[in-house]
Fold:
Amino acid sequence: FRLHKTSLGHDIRNLYLHNPPKRVVETLESEYDSNIEFRYSEYRKITKENLKEVSSHLDGFVVGQQVAKRKVLSSMYRLSKKNDKKPIVMLFQGPSGVGKTELAKSFSEYLGGDLLRIQFSMMQTNEALNYIFGDKHSKSSFARDLLQRESNIVLIDEFDKVHPNFYNAFYEIFDEGKFNDLNYSVDVKDCIFILTSNFKNETEIIKKLGMPIYSRISSNIRFDELNDSEKIEVITRTYENVISKLDSEEVKIVEGLSMKEWFIDHASNYNNIRLLNSRIQEAVYDALTSRLLDD
Structure:
């Protein structure tokens, strides 16, 4: 916010404070309330008119998962019409490496700004307790990260791995669209929370998360294993992306080894997109390194 004040013999026309702690705000409001101006970040909004554009954007980044994409777009349609304070909360469930995180990233890219990604599999210690509920205002915390987010999409990876004692921190977030810790108050009423997990079915989800959290999830979205034709599309996209970074001599070497054809022939052996992408890049650069050293 911006503070206008002339005091203590100093002519302070504008004092800018970026995400000050609650105690600082309360102290300043008690003294200079009429001279305080608040400014808030503006995030790009989804409207029903640009849902088709969003759909095309997602297709350009994420192979397959048409049902999951359609349910995400359905949630966005709902967001464009809602008038309450609850954020949209989507649970992405399914096996690793099938596009859950990539879909969240591509959606955030469409809206602009880097995705705020929080890894909850590490949230098992006292350090995690301080991160979620707050410690010293100078230290990293969940609230500070929310305040400093560039995108209005928050990805919480492996939400199923967090200690159950931490779930109660999300009741107010998912119900009221706000979060308070020891130091900060955060408004997240128009935020989109994406929770990733490796759950196999709804029964497993409820058993792990509990009904109080599960009932606050706007949409439960299932991601499936890719079929062979979708894996071939992943191979083609990854191979072409890697090749585009090489010079003409390097391209000639790699194409002479028929790598793309080999991976396509063995596509059924890969169920994890992340691993498949890694193996293609590894094969290309292993071959180029061997040729360089042999020469």
Notes: The longest helix spans residues 273-294. The CA atoms of residues 24 and 219 lie 38 Å apart. Strands lie at 2-7, 10-16, 36-37, 88-93, 116-119, 153-157, 178-180, 185-187, 192-197, 219-222. Residues 48-222 form a domain with the Rossmann fold fold (CATH 3.40.50.300).
